[in-house]
Amino acid sequence: MKYVYFFGAGKADGDGEMKDLLGGKGAGLAEMTRIGLPVPSGFTITTETCDFYFKHNRQFPKDLRAEVEKNLKRLENLTKKKLGDAKDPLLVSVRSGSARSMPGMMETILNLGLNDASVAGLARATRNERFAFDAYRRFVQMYSSVVIGLPKDDFESRLRALKKRLGVKDDTEVSAEGWRELIGEYKRYFQEKTGKPFPENPHEQLWGAIGAVFESWMGEKAQTYRRVEKITGLLGTAVNVVQMVYGNTGDDSGTGVCFTRDPSTGEKTFFGDFLLNAQGEDVVAGIRTPMHLGELSKRMPKVYKQLERVRRTLERHYRDMQDLEFTVEHGTLYMLQTRTGKRTPSAAFQIAVDMVDEGLIEVEEALERIKSDDVERLFYPVIDPRMNRAELSSRKVVEGINAVPGAAVGKAVFTAEDAESWAARGEKVILVRHETSPEDVGGMNVAQGILTATGGKTSHAAVVARGWGKCCIVGAEKLDIDLQKKTMSSNGHAVREGEWITLDGSDGSVYGGQIDLIRPEPPKAFYTLLKWADKVRKLGVRTNADTPQDARVAREMGAEGIGLVRTEHMFFKDFEHPEKSGERQLAIQEMILADTSDARKAALAKLLPFQRGDFVGIFKAMDGLPVTIRLLDPPLHEFVPHDPAKQAELARKIGLSPEAVARRVEQLHEANPMLGHRGCRLCITYPEILEMQIRAIIEAAIECQKNKIKVIPEIMHPLTMDKKEMQILDQATRRVADEIIAKAKVKVEYTVGTMIELPRAALLADQIAEVAEFFSFGTNDLTQTTMGLSRDDAGRFLPEYVDERKAGIFTSDPFQTIDEAGVGLLVEWGIERGRKTRPNLKIGICGEHGGDAESVKFCHRVGMDYVSASPFRLGVARLAAAQAVLEERQKDKAKKSRN
Amino acid sequence: MKYVYFFGAGKADGDGEMKDLLGGKGAGLAEMTRIGLPVPSGFTITTETCDFYFKHNRQFPKDLRAEVEKNLKRLENLTKKKLGDAKDPLLVSVRSGSARSMPGMMETILNLGLNDASVAGLARATRNERFAFDAYRRFVQMYSSVVIGLPKDDFESRLRALKKRLGVKDDTEVSAEGWRELIGEYKRYFQEKTGKPFPENPHEQLWGAIGAVFESWMGEKAQTYRRVEKITGLLGTAVNVVQMVYGNTGDDSGTGVCFTRDPSTGEKTFFGDFLLNAQGEDVVAGIRTPMHLGELSKRMPKVYKQLERVRRTLERHYRDMQDLEFTVEHGTLYMLQTRTGKRTPSAAFQIAVDMVDEGLIEVEEALERIKSDDVERLFYPVIDPRMNRAELSSRKVVEGINAVPGAAVGKAVFTAEDAESWAARGEKVILVRHETSPEDVGGMNVAQGILTATGGKTSHAAVVARGWGKCCIVGAEKLDIDLQKKTMSSNGHAVREGEWITLDGSDGSVYGGQIDLIRPEPPKAFYTLLKWADKVRKLGVRTNADTPQDARVAREMGAEGIGLVRTEHMFFKDFEHPEKSGERQLAIQEMILADTSDARKAALAKLLPFQRGDFVGIFKAMDGLPVTIRLLDPPLHEFVPHDPAKQAELARKIGLSPEAVARRVEQLHEANPMLGHRGCRLCITYPEILEMQIRAIIEAAIECQKNKIKVIPEIMHPLTMDKKEMQILDQATRRVADEIIAKAKVKVEYTVGTMIELPRAALLADQIAEVAEFFSFGTNDLTQTTMGLSRDDAGRFLPEYVDERKAGIFTSDPFQTIDEAGVGLLVEWGIERGRKTRPNLKIGICGEHGGDAESVKFCHRVGMDYVSASPFRLGVARLAAAQAVLEERQKDKAKKSRN
Hints:
- The structure is a homodimer.
- Chain A is of the alpha/beta class.
- Chain A contains 36 helices and 34 strands.
- In chain A, the strands form 7 sheets. Chain A has an 8-stranded mixed β-sheet with strand order 15-25-24-17-18-19-20-16.
- Chains A and B meet through helix 27, helix 29, helix 30, helix 32 and helix 34 of A and helix 27, helix 29, helix 30, helix 32 and helix 34 of B.
């Protein structure tokens, strides 16, 4: 087992591919050395060594000591300096570095090798006594706190006292003598606290530092970071022992961090900060305001040119935007780190597209590089990142589940009607509810954002909001909402109706007051890249849209049809003429309260023109593209009011007694509405509902066809579970449709299919496909039933199931990313069985998963024809569909090369 | 195609096996003829002819006329009489008869062949003019109404007028002259109504009668009967044309119906009724009181002896109890019908066991003959069948779903507490609720019967009641319950608290008042037969029992262990010390309301001794047999009160504010509790609940082992869906258990397994079986999730799904009989996968299906180790398990004979 990898003088034991073993930093240093960039020499102790350390009760491997000493000797030979040398000592930094970047989470020790003897040597060699003692005091302080664990503050307070005594403000004003005095104090303190003198032996110092870096891997900070960032499967941290170079040796020195392109915009400009006469820590600490990199070209044109070359070399070498650290020591450039640079979503697109144009990468690689999060985050407004964090934190009212990212500002209102009336008079509102129901859709629609006290990421509020790309926080369980007083409170904050609040949907925080937001514009590169994705992908991408307006937006966003029109949304809201929403609601409520089939038909007749009109609008928007219309799905109780006052009002409007209305509402109550009288079961028991809806669809189609609009309606029955059930529905559908078509003498072709959203439907897909012409997997409900999870209630325990620190049973929320092992198995089975019966069965998905990248890839792999996603997730779907193809190609290639 | 089958003079074209073709009556007549019994000659037109008739627009087959005429000629030759003969005419009856008995649902025409000429011949031949004209007027009336469709009443009124004119009361007092006058009137009326004279041609009469019998197959009455009785797959009715014999030709004549054994008790006595000088119709009509069959041995000893021989012959021939019809004409016996006799459940057992003892049938056949309904119905009290139906009907308040058969009488009460307090003072009560919840269990337990306005056959009320064998009617949707006034009303009847009501669980009727019930005793034969079943069956039969008392009863009923202890029932009720139930409830409520893990633990500590005590009792009762204990399963909200008054009371008791209690209850509310925070999810989030329960189980086991009671505990985690979840539960279980066992130094062996009640668990059974040592299929919940059906809500539409007259999508309620196609597929998959991982995996079922005969057979076929049923359904399970083996043997035999 080789524990130590050397690099220096253009050669390196390791290389850039060895991130897992050498950590990102170590691999970068090795690679930069190999390709001839100016890198200080040193060696890297592997992550495997760290792993060994923790697996063997914090013992180093037997051979490590000899290996380190051998490499140290090599370093001394190369630099022609010796550790602890009293004349011109070798000084090293000892840095952590794991395979995944964990900024600031682990330890670093600089200037190692200084002691009372070598500090003099350093002073001599640099001809700068002040610098040498400054370095020494830094080292003593760092070593004492990091390696020994003495409180940092005890050193800081001594430094403050010294400066007070000297009557100076800035560290730079302290003289060599001052530092020497402080070092004396530090050492006395050290002796006092530890009972031992400060270690003068640099080898002892080195081993202490190596151990301290390893220890920091298991530090609380680092462990928490890994949990939060879901970083798993790493061996540990590497330790990089590198010759020190100094940026703080005068005005021909300095240090900087830079990005090879602008990480905010992706623009191809050299972007970074530089501090003259400073060490790297000073840039990070933000004590002095750095200068822009451009300034360097004026101050040190030679160095700048060299850096420009490095930039080009590294970009060409890594074929991606790099994040660099460098130091200039007396006019000599040293590269200290290179790694793939983090970037904003917008920059990610820009860089990917530019690099294709530049010939640096292929289109395929550009597609692979974009993460679905990038697409999603592109569209959401965010809290201005310049906002003061401490102030923000003091304003926090409560935290919930970050259901839909982005941010929103508005005045708190507590009912959907209030939301609508406030919005009607031009107010921006945030709708705050215990939970939302379809009744609230109007209010949700006009709100800037939605906050609920219950529910999970796929509760009603979350799903509806996500469809609109609207900021939404759910499951803020600690929130007390008082509907009577119209207040909410938590955490000592109370918010009354009309007071401003701000939601940060990216992390689930709710703040009091109005906080500035920024809404990003998707760059052109976004559209370019998605067009490339379209050329690669095989999966069709449709949208879920319930209104002509949604349909138009979605078409612009690249939808190739509608995969799901939820007809019930039309019953609540007239999206084109909001003032008419009341009529629709009343008609559906009359229908539900009807005692007889005739009364029901009369009420349905009132709904017919509304639905037909909506369908005409949707068909027009989708001219030439397929439109899948799902018939009425939710349980009827969702359409009627539950509080006595509203029931009385409704009773008055439709001429019934309040008792009769209350009784009917009570009758509609279900213990488990999710498993109740809903979906196609409504049309089985009330065929007149089916009849009206089919009539609306077909009459709209005829009207459009007459106006030369090409209509491809796909009529979809929800929640079927049996062939005979499907037969009854299919026959009823065709009877009504064919009669209308025959009368109108206009050619309208339609298909009849079903959602597959119950395990039984998937299991018996072969039988159901004898009747159904298409399947659309409703994986929201399929997940609920397969896993026995109510998405409205899962907030109580599902977070624990997903949280790795707790039960950690699932790796992700099964309502966000399809549970491939369980639900996915049923989907695969359903597809296979369905196509066995009907080889040309058209198969799609219309659940939330249709807009989730991992799930879209799954849909590709199992052979679906299309996915359907809400308009704002179409980009995610289009990209993921392309990535699925690329992943498949990779696998095929790997397979071929194995054979 | 042969349409007509002749029988007569000891020979017959058909035989007893040809029921489908000749109908039950025709096949019986042919068979009796063949085996030499005295049967009047005749012929049968096949059911295929009827099928042809309706499939060809009510046309007879081309060849039918010739075939009928040929057979009629044969009959005339045999009887030496001619149809319509003026001297000694042949008269025939024309009777319906399908493969399944449909008593009174189809038509019959008697005395066919009479006209003005032949009536004189009949008078001459019988030397009884009055008899001849009586027969003639009966024929004219019957023909006119049945074949032509004239209103019966128009004939009856003319008969009444005649008797008034003659000044007589009884038909028997009318002279030949009187009948002749009436015949004249009938014929004039016939001419007037139809414009044609009454048909004198007996061949025309015959064809009219044949057509009328066919038509009656599609009569409304018959169609309704078939729907209600679920009679499907029949071709139609046969038509039996048989020489008339007369029981009303004097005191050496008569007619009777009899059973070869007592159909009520199964006793081996000749049982029946006989009327002297009467026709068959008179017995059925019940106009005169018949004499017991024994009387016949005195009046006509020769005939009686002959009948006794017929009885023995037929029993030996058919190897089953027969239901016979016969007529004696001038001392000559004629057998008119034989068919397998209907019998009470009690008689079914008695006869089956007796026939084995008599060597008539084998044990296997005895087992096959008993239907699961017979077992079930054996135990239920029933409304006294002598009760006047009209009076009953006038008392009906409402109808619901017949969830648990049997009947119950009690005073209506509307809360579980009222039920308990009323019962405590010795009152018999019926508990009437909108729906029941586990809180109501105490009240349900003391009630005679349970009535709910909502829910289906597997709602909480139905399931709990079925477990106790307690009469229960659910889903009486038309019932208005006013909890404030404590009244219920429907159908114009109002019932106040304390008023008597009677439930008939066999048909779902609810009556006002106290109606007499009869509770049958299972005969010894029942126990004999079940012992035989035990020898045959391979499937183990366990019971679901939650209390020591249930366990004892179940063991007496043959349970071989407990397949399901629902620990939550112990939280509501102390079944051994009912007065202590309050303490338990309070402790569980305290646990639920606890804010911190410590408070929760303190409350759980109070529950521990109760649970431990119950387990000790159960282990004792099951000494040496396995006991499967399911940990806490229902959502916590089921344990806390929902109305403010009770919440306030609870708050007072445990020292919290009413608001705090209300808030916690509100927090526990779930949109779909069935898919919510329940099952093992409770122990994942609150490990202390698991710990207390394991402690109670293991400590009880140790206590029992110390007292030489052999304990075989199987610890079962409900609602798992993932291997990792199961691992967490398994490890927690073993950690607690092993620690207690180690400390006690007593050997206790236990196993840890899981319910499989979610589709995902079945799908991933191979993975779960890596941890679980046994599976118990919870097919109640598996049905709910696989089919997306809430059993508490399914009453709204499931009846329509099951009702053949409506959607008819399922052949039976999937909560009663397992849905083999869908849910069954998952069960099979789960078993196969589970055993792949762990070949010796013990597998059972503990849902309601474990007590349903068809489902038990399914469990046998898919290779389960045992079924678990509620105590009162153990008989059903034991028998069905045996029948499953016999069915398998039959199939194997059939397979072998094919090869």
